[in-house]
Design goal:
Number of strands: 14
Structural class: alpha+beta
Number of domains: 1
Shape: globular
Radius of gyration: 18 Å
Low-confidence stretches: none
Largest sheet: 8 strands, mixed
Distance between the termini: 17 Å
Helix content: 10-25%
Length: 243
């Protein structure tokens, strides 16, 4: 069984010189791939945590950010994958890992989130994503994708997952290894006005500088994505936590 979530990691690649790049993605057993762009074969593999899905893209990347997918021959500006979150573990033998981001049991707390009135969320996210290094096109696509879920609510609580934790749930191996990789993944949920008393800290944290999320995610203070002479990879994504 599956719960409905909005999950759409999108990946951009910029290389100093044109060359072939392989991206190999392995998901935790809590996730199952529902769509890939471009299309690529999906494999099933066994791990200590259960049955996982794996796939790979092979692209020829250019300094402009455009890519040529070897499998389909498509010219692309980004790669993306969508998943379903399993409502229950794949097997009863799954062993919890300390500091693991578990997509099937993701949580937002007053202490680790910000709470925003829905009318303020576009401005906040635009500033936040800019601080994380996303250019205008990526910021626009991110907000547009999740906006329909945001506007169903009066308030929205959100937080970004530390890159290391997210990487264990969605392991991405890139060959050759990039000089700079930024993987930012946001989780969010709707909050009603009746719940505001339980989100006092999150409301206060929404007034703090958005640059705080760089430290939470595990990024250096300086925006390394601006270093055009380096091999850079950016992935953004998010998930709605249903309560």
């Amino acid at each position: 069984m599956y719960e409905k979530h909005l999950i759409k990691p999108t990946t951009y690649i910029w290389t100093a010189t044109a060359h072939r790049v392989t991206l190999d993605l392995t998901l935790s057993p809590h996730w199952e791939i529902s769509a890939l762009f471009p299309i690529s074969p999906i494999n099933t593999i066994a791990s200590d945590q259960g049955v996982c899905q794996n796939m790979a893209w092979k692209v020829f990347a250019r300094a402009s950010g455009l890519m040529l997918d070897e499998e389909t021959g498509l010219q692309l500006s980004s790669l993306s994958w969508e998943t379903r979150v399993r409502a229950a573990p794949v097997t009863s033998d799954l062993v919890p890992i300390a500091n693991e981001f578990n997509p099937s049991n993701a949580t937002l707390r007053d202490s680790d989130s910000v709470l925003l009135r829905v009318t303020d969320i576009i401005s906040y996210l635009n500033s936040c994503l800019r601080a994380l290094g996303l250019q205008a096109e990526a910021r626009t696509l991110f907000i547009q994708y999740f906006l329909p879920a945001f506007v169903r609510n009066e308030y929205v609580a959100l937080r970004f997952i530390p890159q290391e934790e997210y990487g264990r749930a969605a392991k991405l191996q890139i060959n050759p290894a990039p000089d700079i990789i930024v993987r930012m993944f946001m989780i969010f949920r709707g909050v009603s006005s009746d719940e505001l008393d339980t989100w006092k800290m999150a409301r206060a944290q929404a007034e703090e500088p958005v640059s705080r999320w760089r430290e939470v995610i595990g990024l250096p203070k300086d925006d390394q994505l601006k270093q055009t002479d380096r091999f850079r990879v950016l992935e953004w994504g998010g998930m709605e936590v249903l309560v």
